[in-house]
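ZP: hey, is the protoporphyrin IX containing FE complex queued? I don't see it on the tracker
AM: it wasn't, my bad. submitting now with these inputs:
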Amino acid sequence: MSEFLKILENEVQLVALAFMSAVYVLRLLWMFRFKAPQDFSYGVGSSKVGVAYSMMNVAMPWAMESVRRNWSFYFQFVIFHLGVVAAISATFIIPYWPQLFDVKVVVWIFQITLAAAFFVGILRLIRRISKPALRLISTPDDYFSLILMTSFFASGVFAVPNKHTAGEWPLIIFFAMTTFFLIYVPFSKISHYLYYPFTRYFLGKLMGHRGVFPRKRGGEKPAGLDNEKALTK
Ligand code: HEM
């Protein structure tokens, strides 16, 4: 393996990861400067249950109306994010655990997942460009993040066999994209996964306290509302 690829797969990644982590820490410090709002409304539900429900919501497709109406969108979401997991894992497996990609089945599983995520990325791009309502609310970053992830998945398909003796270009492209991705992500919508736990926590706390979370079935009332009299106190 060339010295250039060795450094790109290791030192360059570590520097880019350190940069991304530093920006995330700064963002979290900035975020925690703001005092959490206090809810003065009468509590008819449980904040704890609300937080748990809200955190798990992304794994409870039946609980989201948008999914109940369009299951294929949820499956796209899952495939796309499995691709994210496969691509990010590969950036660590190739330099630090290359033996794993000597196992043919593992390489196939990664390639199939990345290829499926690539096609979902293309579908999403067509959807975002072709739907006027979506175009109206899309920022350049919405397009760029999708194009970046979709091409990252494609380069991952060619990189995971890790055959640098046959040619280093697939690995050079994959790790050059990883470097760019690690520097760009903290400033893009992709950093949604950093904020995800916090937004879900505050939403769950509020909606749980007010008895909105967990979702109620036909006519079911939040526990605290059963005792009507309590409300008239
Ligand atoms: C805790 C981890 C994460 C959660 C809970 C999460 C959740 C979501 C949700 C709910 C959406 C919107 C629904 C959708 O478009 O399907 C979304 C979209 C997206 N996510 Fe994530 N995500 C996570 C991690 C990531 C990571 C690590 C990346 C990339 C490195 C990523 C990239 C994207 C992109 C590019 C989109 C937009 C897709 C589009 O425009 O159609 N996500 N994510």
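AM: back. The chain has eleven helices and no strands.
ZP: great, adding it to the tracker
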